Amino acid sequence: MTISATSVRFDEHTMWVELSDGRTLGIPLAWFPRLLHAAPDEREQVELSRGGLHWEALDEDISVAGLLAGRGDITRSAEHAA
C-alpha cells in the first residue's frame, strides 16, 4: 500500500499533511525554508501526487516518504559543529 497526501494546510509555523492512511503530520515550516518564506497564497498552490507534494512556483518538491522519515530540506548542506 502506498501512503499519499490527501490534503495540505498551513498555520503560522506548521505545514499539516493529511495522509491516505488517516494520519496527520505536523511539519515545522522551518524545515523547508522556501515554504517558510513563501506568501500564504504561494503555499496554497500545492500539487498532490502519489509520491508527494510539489510547488511549481517555489521549485519545491517534498516526498511523503521523506516526511515520514523525519527529513527536512535535503537540498541544503548540514551545518557541522567545529
CA-based shape? globular
Q: Biggest sheet, open or closed, and with what strands and sense? A: 3 strands, antiparallel
Strand content: 25-35%
Please report the number of helical segments.
Answer: 3
User: Oligomeric state of the chains?
Assistant: single chain
**Roughly how many Å is the radius of gyration?**
13 Å
Name of the CATH first level? Alpha Beta
Q: Uncertain spans, ≥5 residues at pLDDT below 50?
A: 77-82
- Count of discrete domains: 1
Q: Write down the CATH topology.
A: NE0471 N-terminal domain-like
Helix content: 10-25%
CATH homologous superfamily? Uncharacterised protein PF10387, DUF2442
Structural class: alpha+beta
| Spatial ordering of strands, largest sheet | 1-2-3
Q: How many beta strands in the DSSP annotation? A: 6
Q: Assign the CATH architecture.
A: 2-Layer Sandwich
Task: Jot down its keywords.
82 residues, alpha+beta, NE0471 N-terminal domain-like, 3-stranded antiparallel beta sheet, 16% helix, globular, disordered C terminus, DUF2442 domain-containing protein, DUF2442
